[in-house]
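Structure tokens please, single chain.
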Amino acid sequence: MSVDGEEGEWLPQPDADDIELVKVLHALGDPVRLWLLKVYATGEQFSCAPDALGVAHLHKSTVSHHMRIMREAGITSTRAVGRNRFVRLRRDDLDVRFPGLLDALLKSLPAGQGLGAGPRDRP
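Here you go.
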């Protein structure tokens, strides 16, 4: 199946008008998901690989769980291609729905600092 010129199938997510602030804030109330928000904010599309996301210290199923919570809250979109999943931030939808929210959240996060438990975060 091709969606917007890309292969794969988009997993279920809320329509832009149905994204709820309470669900977004609840989803981002976890340090791992805040870190993933920072990673996704680069505008790129990412695979589920924990090492590519800077969370290599987490099991892949844990990362998948965090990504599902973010998708179901409307923060991200996930495209399935075979057994692979590709995730991107729904920046435009969130900026229209909640102007300034992402900018405020991203500015509040420490620059260049990871989660503290991964190999990339050690001196």
